[in-house]
């Protein structure tokens, strides 16, 4: 090819790159991770790590509901151990929740979990996708399906759940793509619980192990 034709090729490439500005903010690669709340001020509710069997949920008045399911997320609560008249800890509500890595919100629902819920899609170097899920929260304004978020972005606060008897907490999950498009997130899949481990349920990963393996400082009692 002549010198002159090479120049034309380079000019063409230059014009194409200048003439096609990206109209949508690109989803940055998730190459670094953090804990979904401030790790130093939080812990995992005992009995509510990944894969732990939950038999019963006790209410304020001593009555209980039978769960008999495996908890597939981690429940993050404050280190402040002051309790209310029922012996329950309501100090976690209002605490900030952060995106654990760069990503794009692929699911946002308000009000019926109870509390709001969010799922963020994270594409890691190499192209593999992971999903972080956040439940029992109050979503910050401006955060909705399609929003591009960056690691550490303040996306929500922990909600105060008045119509349930459990303590205020962030229900947090990490999932892979195994059943990413079959989520029925926090609804048809049993609100973060499953009846058996493995098989269809294998899209849930141990969030403590996943983040810990990536060098993230974890809340206390986060079992890897
Ligand atoms: Zn939970």
- Summing up helix and strand content along with how strands pair, one would put the structural category as mainly beta
Query: What percent of residues are in strands?
Result: 25-35%
What average pLDDT do the residues reach? 83
The helix content, as a percent range, equals: 10-25%
CATH architecture: Distorted Sandwich
Number of domains: 1
- Biggest sheet layout: 10 strands, antiparallel
What are the distinct ligands in this entry? Answer: zinc ion
Full CATH superfamily name: Glucose Permease (Domain IIA)
User: Which sequence of SSEs, written as H and E, runs from N to C?
Assistant: HEEEEEEEEEEEEEH
CATH topology: Glucose Permease (Domain IIA)
- Poorly predicted segments: 186-190
The CATH C-level name is: Mainly Beta
Tally of DSSP β-strands: 13
Distance between the termini: 59 Å
Number of helices: 2
CA-based shape = globular
Radius of gyration from the alpha-carbon trace, in angstroms: 21 Å
